[in-house]
Design brief:
Blueprint lengths: L1 E10 H11 L1 H7 L2 H8 L3 H21 L13 E5 L5 E5 L1 H10 L4 E12 L2 E12 L2
Antiparallel strand pairs: 1-5, 2-3, 4-5
Helix pairs in contact: 1-4, 3-4
Subcellular location: Cytoplasm
GO molecular function: holo-[acyl-carrier-protein] synthase activity; magnesium ion binding
InterPro entries: 4-PPantetheinyl_Trfase_dom, 4-PPantetheinyl_Trfase_dom_sf, ACPS, Ppantetheine-prot_Trfase_dom
Amino acid sequence: MIIGTGMDLCDMRRIEKSIERFGARFLERVFTETERTRAERRVGQARIGAYAKRWAAKEACAKALGTGFAAGVFHSCIGVGNLPSGQPVLTLTGGAATRLADMVPAGMVGHLHLSMTDDTPYALAQVMIEALPRL
């Protein structure tokens, strides 16, 4: 059963301006080390797109959790990674993990679905939270 959905559209130019203005302070506050490493392997718009997609994924996840960035849910609590196949995945820690646990009905486990894309100047992410029977 679907217990949460969220979507976010991000203007890549906004992320680019934040990086130019605040540099490492912005990147370290919002993105995990893994996210920064992945984005920094790219150049130009591909680098900005990598950051913007992850920003959109974090925003979409906060919406799917039903809190936005409140109640202990911060950008840094939502990690965006990739499986060896390339499929994007979310990893929640701190307040985001606590909120997910609170949402999931007894006897079930939460599963996060993430889809991301970018096409200059926009990045889009969609998150669905599914509750599945515990095996």
